Each structure stands twice: as structure tokens, then as C-alpha cells.
Amino acid sequence: xxxxxxxxxxxxxxxxxxxxxxxxxxxxxxxxxxxxxxxxxxxxxxxxxxxxxxxxxxxxxxxxxxxxxxxxxxxxxxxxxxxxxxxxxxxxxxxxxxxxxxxxxxxxxxxxxxxxxxxxxxxxxxxxxxxxxxxxxxxxxxxxxxxxxxxxxxxxxxxxxxxxxxxxxxxxxxxxxxxxxxxxxxxxxxxxxxxxxxxxxxxxxxxxxxxxxxxxxxxxxxxxxxxxxxxxxxxxxxxxxxxxxxxxxxxxxxxxxxxxxxxxxxxxxxx
Length: 271
What we know:
It is a single chain. By secondary structure, this protein is mainly α. Helices cover 62% and strands 8% of the residues. The strands form two sheets. It has a three-stranded antiparallel β-sheet. A two-stranded antiparallel ribbon has the order 4-5. 39% of the residues are buried. The mean pLDDT is 84.
């Protein structure tokens, strides 16, 4: 990587997270951008039944958030709920045949995306000061299992960000949007929408959230000669929050190097 390695690592991981979010939305029809939500999704579709208590414990989502996710998936016909065979007081969630089919499609999409991102993942490892040759290959061949490890690393990363700047807690696309603007500089909202791969209306919502928190600001693009043309840029507080994200990467470098090394070595399937 050239330029500022920390910011380039941040931008690459942001792109990776954004594409995974788009895959989830495309396959499951669910906008799940928080790492805890992604972690919960992988637990639901790992094959066997899992209790809502276990999802709460392992994903670190609260009970209400888990219930909302399960209700959404059940309404779409992707999971069923029964009393747990191991604990009659617990509710077990299991994929329906339709849900299992979606999970297979998602795994295939992930498999292809991991392979396509392998060079970028190698650059992330290098940007974090790691070397692929120093990393013992993980025996992971299940894309969902690797995604679970990546999501857990993301949860740990978010914890570091909160420890560094408690008032700047960001979730999902808020983090990705702030990272893009801080790294790439002032841009039009339409350019941010293209970068994040989401609609302009969804981008406007994220920008509004960040502006309300004082992390982004809108201003007229004086260079365009059209006062109606707006740019968004990071405020000094937004720059501090983006820097905290980068410092969090440094604190979690070992776990990030480990999981992105596995992405970097992900095999390209043929046939």
C-alpha cells in the first residue's frame, strides 16, 4: 500500500464490509450492517438449531434485537421456531428448507467474493504490518464460518473504538461512510452512495445521522459555480472519530491479520 497505510487499511476494510452487507441484502433481503447482526445471521444458518439465548450470548446482540431478527427471518419463511430439544424453556431457531437454500446461495456468493478480495486482503495484512508467511493457515473451508470470525473481529474492533472515543460510537454504514469521507476527502453525496453501493435515499439518511452528530458537514461546492451543488466533508470531530477507527485497527492488528490472512489465501474454485 502507498500513502497513509492506516487510512488505506481502513478504506479497504470498509469496502469489504460494505460488499458483505450488500450480499446479505441481495440474498436474504435484510439490511444487516452491524457486525453483531452479521454474527447472529451466521449462527442462525450454521445448520443445526440454535437457541435465541445462544444467539444473544455469542453475537452480543440484546434480546430485543435478536427477536427482531428472528421475526424478520420467520416472516420471510427462512427460519422456524420450536421449543429446544435440550432445554424445553428455550426457543430454538432452525433454517427452513427455503432458508437453507438461501444460506447455500449466500455461501457460494461469499466464496466468490473472498477469492476476488484475496489480493486486497493481502494488502490489508501488509498494511497492518503482517506477513502471510508468518501466519499458520486456518483450516477454514466454510465461507460462513470465516464470515463469523470476521464479524467477531469487527465486534472487538468496535469495542476498541468505543474505548478510545466513547462519544463517537458508530454502527454499520455510519462507520463506513465516515471512513470514506475522511480518507477520500470532500465528495458529493452521489459519489458516497456509489462508493457504499447503496441508494441515494439510504445515503442521505446516513449523512443526516452523521451531520446530526457533528461528524460530517454539508457545504456548497464553490469550485463548481453551482451553489446548489453540495459537498460533504468530515468535521474536526469526524476526523478524530476516523482516527480512532484507525487506532482501533492497530490495537486489534493481530486478530485482523489472522482473519484477513485467511481471506488472502482463500482458494479460487473452478468448475
